[in-house]
Amino acid sequence: MLLEKxxxxxxKLGLKPHxxxxxxxxxxxxxxxxxxxxxxxxxxxxxxxxxxxxxxxDNVSMFHRLKQDELWHHYVGSSVVIHIFHPxxxxxxxxxxxxxxxxxxxxxxxxxxxxxxxxxVKDKTHFSLVGCTTAPGFDFSDWELANPEALxxxxxxxxxxxxxxxxxxxxxxx
Length: 174
Fold this sequence. Notes:
The chain has helices at 2-13, 148-154, 159-165, and strands spanning 16-17, 23-29, 49-56, 60-66, 70-77, 80-86, 90-96, 108-111, 116-121, 127-134, 143-145. With 174 residues, it is mainly β. The protein has a single domain, classed as Sandwich (Jelly Rolls), CATH 2.60.120.10. The longest helix is centred in the first third of the chain and has 12 residues, at 2-13. InterPro entries: Cupin_DUF985, RmlC-like_jellyroll, RmlC_Cupin_sf, YML079W-like. Keywords: Plasmid.
């Protein structure tokens, strides 16, 4: 039953494997371009983009960072644990979800720009469909996958988390 639901969402939303893990498809890309964007961006960027993002069971979104803030919002399935290494505030564990049973869960979570973060489903027997919105709009030139050794040097007390979240898990569906 779970696999059927996941297959249905993958087909309905046109989801494809994401390089950091899980599945994604772009839902929205604004048509207007930013004329004077911050210097940290390369090339033209649209105002905003939004994607669907699906994680299932042991899939993870490996540690990565973006040049812009990213807003995560929960749609259906298990809550999601987002692990954040904030440059000034250190490690933060945020729960994204919309269940009444999980009082620690927030309906939306913001990951600040230039912040290493990773995500996983809280219930390893389930899946989660979320959305991610960025402004300025996302471009793969804004995305950086973490180097596990360098991240471990920066946050040695979180070695086991980094190692667990940087393992490339095969997607369950071909």
